[in-house]
Amino acid sequence: MDRILSNKWYVAIFVLPALLIFIAFVIIPIITTGVYSLYDYNGIGEKVFLGFSNYIELFTKDRYFPDSVKNSFILVAASLFIQLPISFTLALILSRGVRGEKFFRTIYFVPVVISSMVIGQLWMRIFKSDYGLLNILIRTISGSDFEYAWLAQPKTAFYATVVPAVWQYIGYHMLIFYAGIKSIPNDYYEAAQIDGATKFKTTLKITIPLLSPVIKTCMIFALTGALRSFDLIYVMTGGGPNHASEVPSTLMYTNLFRKSLYGYGSAQAFFIVIECLLFSLIISRIFKRAEENASSL
Amino acid sequence: MMIKEEEIHMKVKKIITLLLVVAMMTGIIGCTNADNDASLNESTTDNAAVNEETSDDSQATTDEEIVLNVWHQWSNDTNELKKLYDEAVAAYEAEHPNVVINTETLDTEAYKTKIAAEFAGSASGIDVFYYWGAGMARKLVNADALLPLDDYLTDDVKARILPGSTGAFEYNGQTFSVPMFSWYMTLFANKALFDEAGTKIPTTYAELVSASEKLLALDDVTPFAAGAKDGWNAAFIYQAMALREVGGDDVNAMLRGEKPFTAQGYEEAAKKVSELYDMGAFGKNPLESGNDDANSAFITGKAAMRLMGSWFANQVYTDATATIDPDQVVAVNIPVIEGKGNPSDYAGGFIESFWVNKGTSYPAEAAEFAIYINEKMGQAAYETGTGFSGWTGDFDESGLNPLFIQIKELLSEGETGVLAWDTSLDSEPATIHNELVQTLFADGFDIEAFIEDHESAINQ
To answer: Nearest by CB to B285, which of A44, A129, A258?
Structure first.
């Protein structure tokens, strides 16, 4: 095996099929999107070359795009600072061997398995003004006849979609953290225990540093997932009311498939790709040092 | 000796890996090209057949097998129109033994995307397809993708087409399709709830307001189910008001780009919808419910009125979840605004039909089939109470429900029809319009922005 892998030709040949598929279904579409974004194109008929004016319009004239980017950053923040800490805490608790470990692991993972369409419908019912679970709860507690349309009011519509978005993938990240924690050898903990370290201290000094590659992966998943989130928002609000809950991908969808602005929509799509790559790179950079420290441990 | 054996071993391994790689590669290439190959083969064999026939003698062309690929959007097996389409196709094939109709279907939204994607390429797999006229097909006409049918419309066919039903299919003086069936917008009212509230079904805007006030007194009843979460539902209500304020001819002129969106009536119409929202006629949060929720609210007696197309009549009778008495449902014209517009103006018309791809290999046959299927499906839509046929003839009316017959009578008095704006306008202003009208169904409606944004979208 070593001999085969040391021959560069073999490596090339083995990598080739996957590489071809990757190029055909990832690289080429991204490049085509980039090319389309330079044109005025309605999907059928003539393409008119515009240069960068689609991008200029996007950042200077588009009334909804800046707010949609802001919304996506809110979603990123919620994913990184609410979703991941919860996932991590749950993973820590479960990995300590609570009773019913397997049961809870499965329960928390269930939302990940359910289709986003179903989750969206479910939470739409929860947020409904008249018979929604949330409002009924508030009514029971407060005794008033509280009737607030969470998803139909511009102030709350977007935040109401953030809740299920964060909730849905808690189990997913929890499982990755859980697997990571389980793979840390017990010896470290035993040694720390002998040295008299508290549980909190071992978490801080052993678990987190050794888990940094896993944390990095989770952060990249959470971040890119939030930046290109689409399904839940599309189902629950469609970007409305009056564009209050738009994110770049819902705007892109409207432009591409409703307004037939293939060039302009492609510019938004390309922006999302670049944004995701850029942030992934930044996170990788930040973690590079942490990982070096961990490996020297 | 040992070394040699090892060398042979290596060679065998090398050959095996190479073979594997080749197998994988052909697998990948095979996958991506499978479709193209198939269609290529088909067309080449067809061409070969054509060559053979023509060299033999011209008589033999009737034996040539012609495959027409037809696309439509009645994808659901429970849809009666799908069944009737299949019957019509079987009858056509029996009459034309050399023609094979190969039908593909997709659900509406997926269908629109699929057709757009096909025509972004060569659309070689499409001969005849279902599409929407007016603003939607204009893009295809401009791209020179549609076959004009003028040469194939015999006097006999023209005589059977209902006068004034081809407007949505004519571009630059050419006719690209023939009508299938039309729709007609009415106000559906649940008489039982009106009786309970002690008011009458409105014929004017003033009556609509006073009826809504009385209906609000009923417990758990929304006077008017808007379904405004779906832009086109919100748009229906605004378009109805604008039709009454501005008049059908002027709205049509505006949609054709001949008149700007500046008339006072458009603003008045917006104010009226907003007024209805403010008084609670659409319920507290109309933006929470879409088309399906609103339909469901009406057929379960939770809403007293619903402004919808004639297709809704069927649902009142056939929907298994309906709890109201269908005989209590009355269809009336859009309430008029005193002293404005023309009562004979209506919203609706012919918009859907089958079209022919200009790139088809068999223009004559495809055109003949398109005309045939439009006529047949027009009849089928009428006989099932889905829409009104664009063709004259003796139709079987035994299956029509009373509500549909009411609408038919309303339609017979209609003179100037206005199509749904989102099908008349180009896709960009259409989308902007559907988004803007939703702002009428929420607090803080900004009339100036509403008019300005419409102007900049429509008048450009």
So the answer is: A129
Residue count of chain B, please give it.
460
Residues B46-59: what's their mean pLDDT?
41
CATH 3.40.190.10 boundaries in chain B: 66-182+350-389, 185-346+416-458
Sort out which chain B residues have CB atoms less than 8 A from A241's CB and list them.
287, 438-439, 442
Higher pLDDT, B195 or B21: B195
Interchain proximity B427–A259, CB inside 8 Å: yes
Report the CATH number at residue A192: 1.10.3720.10
Residue in this structure with the two tokens 């005589």, named with its chain if needed: B159
Express each pLDDT in B134-165 by its tens digit: 888 988 998 899 999 999 999 999 999 998 89
The CA distance from B19 to the nearest CA of chain A, in Å, is: 11
| Number of domains present in the structure of chain A | 1
pLDDT digit string, tens, across residues B291-343: 989 999 999 999 999 999 998 998 898 888 899 999 999 999 999 999 898 99
Does domain B66-182+350-389 correspond to CATH entry 3.40.50.620? no
Does the domain at residues B185-346+416-458 carry the CATH identifier 3.90.1150.10?
no
Please count the other Cβ atoms lying within 10 Å of the Cβ belonging to residue A252. Answer: 25
Helix, coil or strand: residue A61: coil
A149 and B288 within 8 Å at the Cβ level: the answer is yes
pLDDT tens digits, chain A, 297 residues: what are they?
A: 667 777 888 888 999 999 999 999 999 999 999 999 999 988 777 889 999 999 999 999 999 999 999 999 999 999 999 999 999 999 999 998 888 899 999 999 999 999 999 999 999 999 999 889 999 999 999 988 888 999 999 999 999 999 999 999 999 999 999 999 999 999 999 999 899 988 889 998 899 999 999 999 999 999 999 998 999 999 999 898 889 999 999 999 999 888 889 999 999 999 999 999 999 999 999 888 777 776 665
Structure tokens at B62: 């009737």
Q: Calculate the dihedral angle through the C-alpha atoms of A230, A231, A234, A239, rounding to the nearest 10 degrees.
A: -20
Range of the domain at A270: 64-296
In a domain, A29, yes or no: no
Q: Which helix (H) or strand (E) holds A287?
A: helix A262-296
Answer yes or no: do B21 and A24 touch at CB < 8 A: no
Please answer whether residues B72 and B64 qualify as being in contact, where contact means their C-beta atoms are separated by less than 8 angstroms.
no
Q: Is residue A85 part of a domain?
A: yes
3-state secondary structure A76-142: HHHHHHHHHHHHHHHHHHHHCCCCCHHHHHHHHHHHHHCCHHHHHHHHHHHHCCCCCHHHHHHHHHH
Dihedrals phi, psi of B369, to nearest 5 degrees:
-65, -40
Of the ranges B114-118, B256-260, B372-376, which is most confident?
A: B372-376
C-alpha angle B262/B267/B273, rounded to 5°? Answer: 145
Contact B442 A20 (CB under 8 A): no
First to last CA, chain A: 31
Whether the model clears a pTM of 0.90, i.e. scores above it, the answer is: no
Q: Are B459 and B169 in contact (CB under 8 A)?
A: no
Rounded to 5 degrees, φ, ψ at A7 are -85, 115
Give the residue on A whose Cα is nearest the Cα of B437: A242
Q: How is B215-227 classified by DSSP, letter by letter?
A: HHTSTT-EEEE--
The neighbouring-strand residues paired with B146 are B357
- B4 has a pLDDT exceeding 90: no
Partner-chain residue, chosen from A129, A149, A260, that has the shortest CB–CB distance to B139: A260
Distances (CA, A) of A217 to A175, B241, B419: 12, 55, 53
Mutate to test the interface with B, among A40, A242, A243, A252 (most CBs of B within 10 A): A242
Best B288, B441, B452 member to test A by mutation, with max A CBs in 10 Å, is B288
